[in-house]
Amino acid sequence: MENLRKVSTITALYKKEQYLKTFLKELPQQTYFPYLEIVVDHNEPKEEELHLINEFKAKFPDHIKHIITNPVEPLGVSWNRCIFESTGDYLTTWNIDDLRTPDSIESHARVLNENPDIDVVAGNYICVPSFPSKNGRYIDILKCSRRGIIKHIVLGPFFMFRKNVCQKVGYFDEQFRCANDVEFEMRLMFHCKTKILNKNTGYFLDEKTGLSTRPGSLCSIETTVFDFRYGLYGSLDYRYIPQALKYRIFDIKLGEDWIPIADIIPNYEALLQERFDESLSTGLLRHLGKTVIRKIRDMINV
User: Fold this and answer.
1) Fewer CB near the terminus (10 Å): N or C of the chain?
2) What residues make up the domain containing 243?
3) H or E stretch covering 228
4) pLDDT score recorded for residue 208
5) Do 38 and 109 share a structural domain?
């Protein structure tokens, strides 16, 4: 493979000791490991977690950058810190509770190494119900796109991008608590040529206990913010509008700064107007239909 480039992970860690040992064990199995830097933003570390990471550092001192954060900070802040501390030309998301196929990093990096016109690479994956299972539902990102539900998946949990594109698309929105990755991926797709690998590249854990999947999650509210921000009016769930309006919908938070989304997305106002004209009525009808169905169910269950 020619023109190899270092890859840095974006990995936040908080109360995940039950997954950490397996995660660290799997890292050297990556075929691209010689060129891999693991950047971990470790929030309120526990002794057992520190012991495991120090063992790994002793074996592979040049492969991990361990940042300790105390007290705990939001996910977007941790991910941005990983970006700022990274030294790789390419960045990739890798959560502690997700596993990758052995050639996952290499297959993504190869596309960027060989295609200077491509800035973002993502791969299909398997959604698993337990850790470290590798049996579950296969997610084909392109098929999801054709079914019109790409806004909930976008690029999936395993995507890689050139670090320098952050100069155009910005960084993770730190006001979000669980929709940071999906929102960031949308900005990548506005600016960057993207390649989707038609193969399994990893195993995404969905135990219904994560930030975006557990009961009481802010995901529904932040999805509504996301829908407003990108004019996805046909998908709006109007029940969450009051909570969504507490966010600064049209600004991205980075530290103490607020960056207008209109400064990042080309022809942003025209895009919103076009999507408003096309899909607002669809969204209203969809919401009214769901409301009627819920009322009928409530009457039947009385």
Assistant:
1) C
2) 219-301
3) helix 219-229
4) 60
5) yes
